[in-house]
Amino acid sequence: MTDPAYLGPGHTTRLQEGLDRCQELEQTTEHVRTFADLLTQRQGHRLDDWVNDVRAGDLQPLRSFAEGLLIDHDAVIAGLTLPYSNGPTEGVINKIKLLKRQMYGRAGLALLRKRILLTIARN
After folding, report:
1. Which H or E run includes 116?
2. Do the Cβ atoms of 103 and 111 come closer than 8 Å?
3. Which tens digits make up the pLDDT trace of 56-73?
4. How far apart are CA 90 and CA 94, in angstroms?
5. Helix 47-56 crosses helix 60-69 at what angle (to 10 degrees)?
6. CA 91 to CA 41: how far, in whole Å?
7. How far apart are CA 96 and CA 79, in angstroms?
8. b vs e for 52-78, b when ≥16 Cβ sit within 10 Å of the residue's Cβ?
9. What are the pLDDT digits (tens) for 7-26?
10. What is the pLDDT of residue 3?
């Protein structure tokens, strides 16, 4: 899962040996690396080409993933292109869910509300 540029010489050699032994793994690796470039370089305009390349291959799990991306094509393109992120919002939601789980069965909604507001106010 690491970018090959960050691998040491020993790991690079072992990775290449594994890819040389399994054609499906080599194809999967190529598609995943291309998709990672789409994500990291915000190249949403290349998504359709990537999906078509995956569909042309015989890797069913990857093909299923690619076709799933087409279900909400416009949103995926926006996510791969625009600089906006809902990461901070997801972080707050995750924190609230953690507090809710910690208090399950111990107190009422009023205390949970107060604890959430105090936690958010601290940050």
Report:
1. helix 109-122
2. yes
3. 988 999 999 999 999 999
4. 6
5. 150
6. 23
7. 25
8. eebeeeebeebbeebeebeeeeeebee
9. 888 888 888 888 899 889 89
10. 79
Two tokens at 7?
């691998």
Q: CA dist 82 to 26, 32, 59, 86, 122, Å?
A: 30, 21, 29, 12, 31
Cα gap 18→25, rounded to integer Å: 8
CB 8, CB 16: distance < 8 Å: no
Contact 66, 50 (CB under 8 A): yes
Joined together, the tokens standing for residue 5 give: 């540029």
3-state helix, strand, coil in the chain (%, to 5): 80, 0, 20
Q: Tokens standing for 86? A: 């809902």
- What are the residue ranges spanned by the domains of the chain? 4-81, 87-122
Phi, psi of 46 (to 5 degrees): -95, 0
Nearest to 70 by CA among 85, 51, 56: 51
Question: Which pTM value belongs to this model?
Answer: 0.68
